[in-house]
Amino acid sequence: MKSKWLSVLLLFISCTVFSQTPIGTWREHLPYNKVIMAVEGGNRIYAATPQTVFYVDKTDNTIHKISKINGLSDVGVSSIAYSEETKSLVIAYTNTNIDLIKNDVIFNLPDIKRKIIPGKKTINNIFIKGTKAFLSCGFGIVVIDLNRNEVSDTWLIGPLGNQVEVFDIDIYNDKFYVATELGIYFADISNPNLANYNYWTYDESFFYFGTKLNMICNFNNSIIVNKPGPQENTDSIFTYKNGVWNYADFLGNAQKRNINVYGNTLIIALNYFVNEYDTNYANIVNVWTYNPKNIFCNYAIIDKNNNRWICDNKYGLVKNWSQNIWKNDFFTFNGPLSDQCFQLSINQDMLTVTQGGVTSSWGNNMVQANWSYFTNNEWHNVDNISIPQLDTIYDIISMASNPLNSNQVFAATWGKGILEFNNGTLQNTYTTFNTPLESFAGGTFIGGLAMDKSGNMWCTNSNTGKILAVRTPQNNWHTFNLAPYANGINASKVFIDSSGYKWIILPRTNGIVVYNDNGTIDNPSDDEKKSLNINLGTRISTNFINCIAQDLDGSIWIGTDKGIKVFYNPESIFSTSNPAPQNILIEQDGYVQNLLEFENVSCIAVDGANQKWIGTSKAGVFVMSPDGTKELFSFTESNSPLFSNIIIDIAIHPKTGEVFIATDKGIISYRGFATSGNEYIADEVLVFPNPVRETYNGYIGINGLTRNANVKITDINGMLVYQTIANGGQAVWNGKTFSGNRAQTGVYFVFSSDQDGIEKVVAKILFIH
Predict the structure, then answer these.
(1) What is the pTM of this model?
(2) Signed CA dihedral, 688, 694, 698, 702: sign only
(3) Which of these, 422, 427, 405, 399, lies nearest to 494 by C-alpha position?
(4) Statement: residue 1 has pLDDT above 60
């Protein structure tokens, strides 16, 4: 068990985003529009999203995040509960990890997560009684002692002590009643040995053995259970009182999302309604709209002030005032639509996120063609609600914005052609019906796209005779036959290097085709094309090519399922008969091996200091020196706030150095030490934070310099206190002098040299000791 101070718990929504995120710090980019559960704890309403937790302080209606960045042990929430007696919030994760929060201190209980348990290892629900939390698990019941912050018991209550999936627990007539996949089990709560299955009784008085019951509660001195139907709107609710079971037909067959009891009120959340009932089961409240928004309900509770809190699938946490069911307050944070990501792309100040994808056999994932973009520290979402035409379009797998007009964005779909957006509005759809793009199996399958510096949009047209195409800014189209190297096969990403060469990944043939139009798109007579064998001249053969990146020295880095290969002179590709990539050799534990040869490299990004950010499919992120021979950092889910070791993509903001990392559990970013260097020193060199307060102990960034500039920091008397070389266009100072002591209070001058070698003051820093 471990504990951490939840140091940043009290973040107001108005100040969660800083104009300059401190260097070396993280921030999450998770969706908060979908809330799956809520509980009341003291003056707070805690809400769980599928990824994390936040809360509303009822005293001032402020909203606050709780995430892995400020102390949580994991991401992916399955259930939450609150104990008023111990003032504990219990958080259960989808991987069965558990956190307890008491007085803003987090205690981690990884017992279930670490234990090897055959069968279904899940936590479905949490029931609080006194100082104990009873977890309904996929294998049985786990008991947590909330005073001692530890797992105190495990109950396997199935036949002969075998596992049985438990969905819900409550107490009725001094007995535990448990809803399971087989029906109802019960036992005396006073029995000290409930780990012995012999003390549990299966209730066979009404339901057949094997009847799945997923909710149970005690209301009006009776038991209420929900029997989920095989299809939507086929649920059945039954009541048990005085030894008699009855079908509660007056509660209807709509799918029940949750059932809760608050005194003499029963509240039931359905997909599109929230209903309340009195002790006679009369429907006293029906909430079906937010006026004018429709409800998409996951969960609902009633607080001590008799307000309803609705956990909505689209609008976050909604406070519904009891005095007026049409009056609502919405609580959510700005974020992307989804935690899903297939590709990240940055152009100027805008990050775009695709949420589609393909299967391993290059079939459709059938993910709605919604997407998100991040600019000026704010997320914007484009979905099928705002653009109904997206209703029938799926799987956006690549996006690129015009370098001459960042408001114009193109999206590649797997089967429905290319979408053109302007300011988030769909302008055009390009398919085989209105362009020279060719069809396959009745669709237009675009595997990847990229923009060149002239505003031409290049794309791969998979499984056709001409797998490469381009759209000019004048909306003229040209297609290119790359036979015999690529004809009628899958083509995925297209990457454009600094020479204008197009590098095309052929995922099913383990190949790369490079194409050069020689700057004459409409004249094919001078075109060049070449197929590359990335296994030539290398010790390790690879089966899959995942990504391509070009570094600041012009070298092309190839990420494969067995590490990295590099073409050091890509400009000579067409003049060399059999160009071969090189492996990067590193020494580790006394042995020489290829860089990351045992890792599946999913993505590579190059920062302003030419350092390589390498994402892998199972080992997190590696940050390597410019030549790849030295590991600078390694980020994993265990040594950093990184959500997962499964990295989908990485993109780096050139001006700020912020590194956006897409994992299979959402996007997180890290404010890196390097930015792109300027040709000349910026008119206004940015220092942040400035002033440096006495409470600040992090890094101080100096941004807007020429690449790898020499930087000196002096006090007001001209005495040198620090000297460094910029990482790309950004220098970093730790606030200490050469002696290692914190600088004294005063004004400090930052000197740097321009391209003529003339040293001048570029910034001033007010430093408070």
Answers:
(1) 0.93
(2) positive
(3) 399
(4) no
